[in-house]
Amino acid sequence: MKQTTWLALTLLVIFAVLFGLARRNTVKDLSTQPIKIGAVLPLTGPVAGLGEALKLGYTWKIEELNKEGKITSFYLEDSKSNAKDAVTAFLKLADVEKVPIIFTTMSAVSMTLRPIAEQRSVLLWADAAHPLLTRDTRFVLRHSNTSNKDAEVLANKVIELAGKKTGVLYQNDDWGVAASELLSGNLSAVGNKAVLEPIDNKSADFRILLTKLISQKIDSLVTIVAGPPSGIIIKQARELGFKGNIVSSVGIILTPDAQNLAGSYLKGTYYQTYDENPLFASDYRARFNAPPAAFTHVGYTDMELLMDAIEQTGTVDPTQIVRYIKGLKSFKGKYETVEITPEGDIIVPTIVKQWQ
Fold first, then answer.
1. Are 342 and 322 in contact (CB under 8 A)?
2. Domain 34-145+277-349 in CATH: superfamily?
3. What angle do CA 318, 319, 324 make, to 5 degrees?
4. What is the per-residue pLDDT for 70?
5. What is the pLDDT of residues 221-274, one digit of tens each?
6. Which CATH code is given to the segment(s) 148-273?
């Protein structure tokens, strides 16, 4: 009996030593070899502003990490603001470059890449709003506002403005369809009739649709649109004589070109946005000599949280990283303290402000 006990204890000690050495070697390898991280972002196309904002957040944090001796190789590909090119870019990173962790954004892109990431066991960190993005997934994480929460915020503003009939123009993709249907449901629940019309966000003329909505005596107009059209719609609605309330989704704050196109017609309209973090805003201005771009803070925290997970697990294995992050429940970063759901969602709250 004593011999058996001693043998068991000896084996346990040997196992513990070997496990410790193996983990130490893994951590050592990570500290001396570049950690491969990739991103498929809209660097061209209608939502290039969003891609540039996230890219800035990622690269800002990577620069800091590299100065600390934590070598990170960052592979960046352009989705060109569409799902087809995003798939090509993702497969290049995953299959050719062997990148195990890939960031992306846009609901249409993220929902298309989701099953590919699951099949290849690649961590897809998708900062997009679609309500089903992380449902029943093993390798998808999200740090973003979500369509269901956004719809509540937009509906509450329309209701606050005493609207009775609302025209909704939405871009005809995964994000636009989901968000418009959720908004319509929230408005209908309080007796506000929503009239939904899809748009082609490659178009620059929405006067026929706007005339149709205005003729139906709407008192509020909501746009669930990203890219230049979100600004063009505001300008054309006012030029057609619409005097009701205009409420824009986050699409307009994420695409600076749209704000320029709307010009002075923005004044008095309402827009969905994110609370500004004073420390982040101050550091951003000091670093880039410009006002902070919307969503850059998300990219910074993404990279911060990912590197924490890599350091704590001693690996870049997506399975272990996802398990670690989902188990955290919360994370305190330099600029954000975030809550993490069991599904892997980090929800960014939104608010509605009025253009001054």
1. no
2. Response regulator (3.40.50.2300)
3. 95
4. 85
5. 999 999 999 999 999 999 999 999 999 999 999 988 899 999 999 999 999 999
6. 3.40.50.2300
Domain boundaries, the chain: 34-145+277-349, 148-273
Which pair of structure tokens corresponds to residue 347?
């929800």
Each residue's pLDDT tens digit, 13-33: 444 444 443 333 333 345 556
Q: 3-state DSSP call for residue 351?
A: strand
Contacts of residue 3, defined as CB under 8 A and 6 or more positions apart, other chains included, come to: none
Is the pLDDT at 340 greater than 90, yes or no? yes
Do domains 34-145+277-349 and 148-273 share one topology? The answer is yes
* Sequence-separated contacts (24+) of 140-143 with Cβ below 8 Å: 140/114, 140/344, 141/322, 141/325, 141/344, 141/345, 141/346, 142/344, 142/345, 142/346, 143/298, 143/301, 143/302, 143/305, 143/338, 143/346, 143/348
Provide the CB-side half-sphere exposure for 104 (13 A, CA): 33
Helix (H) or strand (E) holding 238: helix 229-239
One-letter amino acid at 53 equals: A
